[in-house]
Write a structure and sequence with these properties.
Layout lengths: L3 H4 L12 H69 L2 H24 L4 H8 L5
Length: about 130
């Protein structure tokens, strides 16, 4: 015969029961670790983004300075070209250049003629074909 008392008299395994507030504390700690990790990742991302943006702004400022310098250089070059045209490309300057060439040729021809050369030789010296 089996005893009802013997069948139920086995000692149960001890079960560890946490205090009532401990579960909430563990849950809160797990969620705070996760939120701390998320906050750290976001802070790192925002810092790198702010640094990149600051570098871009500095580069844009440098490019603006270079563009301003290039604009000033182009304007100065255009002014120099305009002054060159006004001073050296006009009909008066062309006439001066032609007169200078004629005088140089006449000088060479006269020196060749004085040295005893013929008229043809003096013309060749004047135009620079004989020396």
């Amino acid at each position: 015969m089996s005893c009802v008392r013997c069948a139920t008299s086995r000692t149960p395994k001890p079960v560890y029961v946490q205090p009532a507030g401990m579960d909430k504390l563990i849950e809160l700690m797990n969620s705070s670790l996760l939120s701390g990790a998320v906050i750290a990742v976001l802070a790192s991302w925002l810092t790198s983004r702010a640094r990149n943006r600051q570098d871009q702004q500095a580069e844009i400022g440098a490019l603006r300075v270079q563009a301003d310098a290039m604009t000033v250089a182009v304007v100065e070059l255009q002014a120099a070209v305009a002054a060159n045209r006004l001073l050296w490309d006009g009909p008066a300057e062309r006439a001066r250049s032609f007169l200078l060439a004629v005088m140089a040729a006449a000088d060479g021809a006269a020196r060749a003629r004085i040295a005893g050369g013929t008229h043809a030789q003096s013309a060749q010296v004047g135009f620079g074909r004989a020396g």
